[in-house]
Amino acid sequence: MKFEDLKAFLLRGNIVDLAVAFVVAVAFGAVVASLVNDVIMQIVAAIIGQPDFSSLSFDLNGSPIYYGKFLNAVINFVIIGTVVFYFVVVPVNAMMAKHKKEPPADPSIKKCPECLSDIPADARKCAFCASPQNMGDMLAEA
Length: 142
Known about the structure:
The protein is mainly α.
């Protein structure tokens, strides 16, 4: 294996983009984890009285079942999902909708008011439902 081949592989756009995305995701994960553990779970603790449920358990035939750890994981999952949705997905969707450009309407085509089919703008009758079109133009000719 040549060094040039390794260099070409490592400097491909996809590999570099993936590495950057991974680093950003790890940093974002730390921010979200801090928000959940240091802010939101403290609010839960103020309401319920306990921010960490990992010590909750019961014995089943002498074996401890730590349902509190599972409860912590479920709460963290719901909170992280909510945070990601409202602070990432919603703003990105709004930004994409703002910058989305619709193609201009074709002036040679219009919708039939009766059947809503696309017909030529100069048509006198709809080819689909036979309803008269351009009533103003037809009256002006008469």
